Amino acid sequence: MDILLNIIYLIATITFIVGLKKLGHPETAKKGNLIAASGMGLAILGTIFIHELAVPPLIYILIGLAILIGSIIGWLIAIKVEMTKMPELVSLFNGFGGASAALIGLVEYSKNVSDVTQATTIVAGVIIGAITFSGSLIAWGKLNGSLKSVVKIPFYNPINNLLFIGIIAFAAFMIATGVDSQLLLYALLASGLAYGVLFVLPIGGADMPVVISLLNSLTGIAAAITGILYDNMVMLVGGILVGSAGIILTIAMCKAMNRTLGSVIFGAFGGGEAAVVGN
Amino acid sequence: MTDFLQFIEDNLQITYILILSIFVGIEVIKSIPAVLHTPLMSGANALSGVVIVGAILVMLHADPADYLALALGFVAVVLGVLNVVGGFAVTDRMLQMFKKKK
């Protein structure tokens, strides 16, 4: 049984690589997307049905229900959305992926807190998942116009950096002491969410695609980290693929706009001087 | 430092896979036309929905009496599926648009 699942994961991983490769060429892109999608479907079905756990029927029903709800909503949104609104939709979906990673961390934390390696992966998953979730929602809001395009906060840069250092210190404290406190974990989640908001808020609307690509890459890293937690190869390789390909793609998108990644992320702090250089 | 070396030794296989995967990701994306940037981002986004596998594992391992874990796992599965299905479907639509233009 175990071998069968591992072979399925191996096939799925290969479809991810081949699919991503084909997505990079205009003639094969559509096929590449289908290949990757079928690999994903295979991995999901394999995970649900191939294991030796004694799982009560209720849980199968819940999983089936969750997949049904998610598929129908996801499919309907994707089919109905206007062409011009697609980038913001990608951002929204990406945020959901990040939220999923964060939720997994919330459930797994108290079970694995005694093991430093496991606790580290869980805490990292919660933080990265939270940042991508709130960041992607802000990006989504900016692109659909419900958020004002540039929000100026005084002392933005120091506040943001302090918060980031604070989150890292907080996470290190939790891992080092191994405290089994859901409250602290939720506080960590909340600070990750706050950082995601602060990270994306000052970035201009025109730079949003780059930011979405960057957040997408982060979701991949969150997935990979969760893969380490479960010792699950398809999550690990799939996540890392998205993570590294996403960063290369982000840089390529910056280049296409004649800007550097630094000027997109930090340009907003400097009163837009980087944007002037770019133009 | 010794802890770190011990960690590498214990997880040698995963470390190799990690590093090789990073390079595969970089190679696969290298030199793609700018028109495909957005579909590729969308496709990669759908792939990052692979966290759904973890969400399903949470549900499978959950204690049926632990309602909080079940609820969180349930939401995680819904969100993960949204990411996967929505992501692939949107990518497909983007690529259709791309073909019409040509």
Automatic annotation (TrEMBL), chain B:
Where is the NAD(P) transhydrogenase alpha subunit C-terminal domain positioned along the sequence? 16-100
State the reactions this protein catalyses. Answer: NAD(+) + NADPH + H(+)(in) = NADH + NADP(+) + H(+)(out)
Localization terms from the record: Cell inner membrane
Q: Which residues cross the membrane?
A: 12-32, 44-62, 68-91
Q: What is its EC number?
A: 7.1.1.1
Coarse class of the protein's main subcellular location: membrane
Taken from the UniProt entry, a GO cellular component term is: plasma membrane
Please provide, alphabetically and separated by semicolons, the GO molecular function terms listed in this UniProt record.
NADP binding; proton-translocating NAD(P)+ transhydrogenase activity
Topology with respect to the bilayer: Multi-pass membrane protein
Q: Which GO terms describe its biological process?
A: NADPH regeneration
Q: What does this protein do?
A: The transhydrogenation between NADH and NADP is coupled to respiration and ATP hydrolysis and functions as a proton pump across the membrane.
Keyword Membrane included in the entry's annotation? yes
Protein name (database record): proton-translocating NAD(P)(+) transhydrogenase
Coiled-coil annotation: which residues?
A: none
- UniProt keyword list: Cell inner membrane, Cell membrane, Membrane, NAD, NADP, Translocase, Transmembrane, Transmembrane helix
For whether the record's keyword set contains NADP, the answer is yes
| InterPro entries registered for this protein in UniProt | NADP_transhyd_a_C
